[in-house]
Specification:
Jelly Rolls; about 375 residues; 7-stranded antiparallel beta sheet
């Protein structure tokens, strides 16, 4: 027995229970995938008319879409019953492409830093196998491809899985052997991509599927892949994505929402107006630098992977509050950008008094936002 203090509460806990607490709360997350339960969607919950992919809705999941139809991409509440999931990611084909050109393709992709993957021991004789598990559902049955791509050493491996029953949630498990060739860089750069193929032209299907680690050959990456884009009736859902070391899949690792959000915010953070029922919601405090400009400091909730790229809604969606005056923004810019903060300069044509304190507010809209992105 041992006396253990948790917060301000002292308890007597058996030694073996203490060990269990340590194992469950201190050990690094077993799941390489970030936001595999599709619960965090800072940018949007639905985007229509998508023809070019990108980071659209669910955090940490990028869509590659190269002239392979048009899609609505959304965070859905359609999930496998009794699984514990609240969300999935949904792809709904709205304009079909039944005859793919050679280079056409569509993939769902997640990217990872090399410094988070050193325990896999890739490139050594002790390289770990990796097992992916996930829930998937589609009206389009048939063969789909899941690929791992080593970006440091231009190596790939692809495995197939089959959706057997239309419109039915199915759990899939795919195991990849360890790769003794090519180590991941021990840095914050992109080392590994995990890719779910959804459509592929002949440039990616005309060879033999690379089911063992090998140098990247485009023709061998997605052999056998069905074309999800061949009908506007097609939809594809996924949730519960887990990638872990070993040759067997364990139960999905659910993380608290604050932990999951912070992991996502390392790569992307949206600062938005919060609060309904009134205009002029506060964004930041600052100081008037001149009669036409006020400066504000934004401190990130989570330290970024690298100095982020800044973007925002139009300057006119913000106000400079200054001594009872609320002039609208006329231009917006960012400087002093680093992994923990950035300076935002909001200009207004009039109504500012140099040296006064200022508040940056939303201008009668709840869609105003400022984005900091350090995606891989």
């Amino acid at each position: 027995m041992a006396i253990t203090r948790i917060g301000n509460i002292a308890s007597t806990i058996p030694d073996d229970s203490i060990q269990n607490v340590k194992m469950s709360n201190i050990v690094q997350s077993k799941n390489i995938i970030i936001n595999g339960d599709m619960s965090i969607a800072q940018r949007a919950t639905s985007v229509t008319g998508n023809t070019a992919g990108g980071y659209t809705t669910v955090d940490r999941w990028n869509t590659i879409l190269t002239t392979a139809g048009t899609y609505t991409i959304s965070q859905s509440t359609d999930v496998p019953s009794g699984s514990g999931f609240a969300n999935s990611m949904k792809f709904d084909c709205t304009t079909a492409d039944a005859s793919l050109a050679a280079g056409d393709n569509m993939r769902l992709q997640s990217k990872f830093e090399g410094q988070n993957l050193q325990y896999i021991k890739k490139g050594t004789s002790n390289a770990e196998s990796l097992t992916a598990s996930f829930w998937v559902k589609s009206v389009k049955t048939g063969i789909y491809i899941l690929e791992l791509e080593d970006k440091d050493n231009s190596r790939t491996i692809s495995k197939s899985y089959t959706i057997s029953s239309a419109n039915t949630w199915e759990k899939k498990t795919v195991t990849f052997p360890g790769d003794t060739t090519g180590a991941f860089g021990n840095d914050n750069a992109r080392s590994l991509d995990v890719m779910f193929w959804l459509a592929a032209g002949s440039n990616f299907t005309s060879g033999t599927l690379s089911t063992t680690w090998t140098s990247t050959t485009s023709a061998n990456r997605a052999v056998g892949q069905v074309n999800l884009s061949d009908s506007t009736s097609n939809e594809w859902y996924i949730t519960g994505v887990q990638l872990e070391t070993g040759t067997t899949a364990s139960e999905f690792e659910f993380l608290p929402v604050d932990v999951n959000l912070a992991r996502c915010q390392r790569y992307f953070e949206r600062t938005t107006a919060v609060g309904a029922g009134s205009n002029y919601v506060n964004f930041a405090a600052g100081v008037v630098q001149s009669s036409g400009n006020a400066s504000y400091c934004f401190l990130w909730k989570t330290k970024k992977r690298a100095n982020p790229t800044m973007s925002s809604t139009a300057a006119s969606t913000f106000l400079n509050e200054n001594g009872g005056s609320y002039p609208a923004g006329s231009s917006i810019s960012f400087g002093q950008i680093n992994t923990t903060s950035a300076q935002c300069d909001l200009a207004s044509s009039s109504g500012l008094t140099q040296g006064n304190g200022a508040l940056m507010k939303s201008n009668g809209t709840y869609n105003a936002y400022i984005d900091a992105s350090s995606e891989l």
